[in-house]
Amino acid sequence: MEISASVTPPPPFQAIPIVVAFDNNYCIPAAVSLYSMLSCAKQELVSQLFLRLNPFAKKRFSKMILCRLLLASIFSQYEKIIMFDVDTLFVGDISESFFIPMDGAYFGATKEDLSLLGIHNANDLFVSRLNWSRGMGVKLNHKSLSFQEVGILYENPFNAGFMLVNLALWRESHLEEKLIDFFKTRDEGLLLPEQDLFVLVCQGRILEMPCKYNVHPRMVGTKMIPKKSDACMLHFYADEKPWKHFGYPYSKEWHQVAFKTSFESLVFEDLVGKIETFTELNDHNKKSFFEFLNTRLNKKFLIQYVLFKVFKKLESFCLR
User: Fold this and answer.
1) What is the mean pLDDT of the chain?
2) Looking at the domain that runs over 17-213, which CATH code has it been given?
3) Where in the sequence is the signal peptide annotated (predicted)?
4) Residue boundaries of the structural domains of the chain
């Protein structure tokens, strides 16, 4: 069943429940994601944010992943929610997406352009997954996906980084039980656990949403997303995380937002600590990097940074 998205005008006021989940390693990216989301949002529409910051297990299949399978139970008071990953940067308002009719779909998501990854058929995806598993240190076993299932994933390349979730239908169809039962039979055989689960269990009942709601930075400048203003959310779902290297796409824009959060001193310290690793930047990016740092070195920030360092020293001394 082919389902496509259309938008109905939003009511004068509607609370939009938004859910994110992340572990302690993603506190700063989450702060950037949420700050940028709220900065771009129409404040009268986005009024509720459910932020779950827990010391989740650090194993590969953590509670952070499993909680996605239990959304209908966790948020029993809602019929529909928006959920997104926090390795993201919002450049537009997403509130309109909440009013897209679900039309019998379990959830709405965008499709990836696999050709950007050099994947042009199911066999390419199969080989890529083998390579990804080695790079991630994951040993695929007898519970891994069959080639037929890889074919389903190729034909339905939905990315779970941004989801409009029809919780009412989840409850009506007992979808949680189906997801959990499937997960039990596969566990570590799944390379992209929640994404693979959702596509394989819900195939045929997934709403394809406009790609602007989940854009990989490399898509900007292509036919799908001609310019950044055509996107709502940039999703850094590959290796090029903007906080890891200033030369990665949209790293400067990401850091600009990071310096507006309460983590600005940590972000500054991290950038300064990475200066030696930026020697491979071209001259333009080097100039951009140092100009960016220079604009942050005002009196107010330097005082805050000195106090931050003093506090860290005191904390370290007291915890000995």
Assistant:
1) 83
2) 3.90.550.10
3) none
4) 17-213, 237-318
Gap between the Cα atoms of 230 and 224, Å rounded: 9
CA distance 261 to 274: 20
SS3 304: helix
How confident is the model over 209-228, as a mean pLDDT? 93
- What proportions of the chain, in percent to the nearest 5, are helix, strand and coil? 50, 15, 35
Give me 57's structure tokens.
């297990």
Joined tokens for residue 5: 């998205």
Is residue 121 left, alpha or beta, with left meaning phi > 0 and alpha meaning psi from -120 to 50?
A: beta
Q: Which two tokens stand for residue 144?
A: 């891994």
Alpha-carbon Rg for the chain in angstroms = 21
Q: Which long-range contacts (CB under 8 A, 24 or more apart) does 256-262 make?
A: 256/292, 257/32, 257/35, 257/36, 257/39, 257/89, 258/28, 258/31, 258/32, 259/296, 260/35, 261/28, 261/31, 261/32, 261/35, 262/31
Check pLDDT > 70 for residue 282.
no
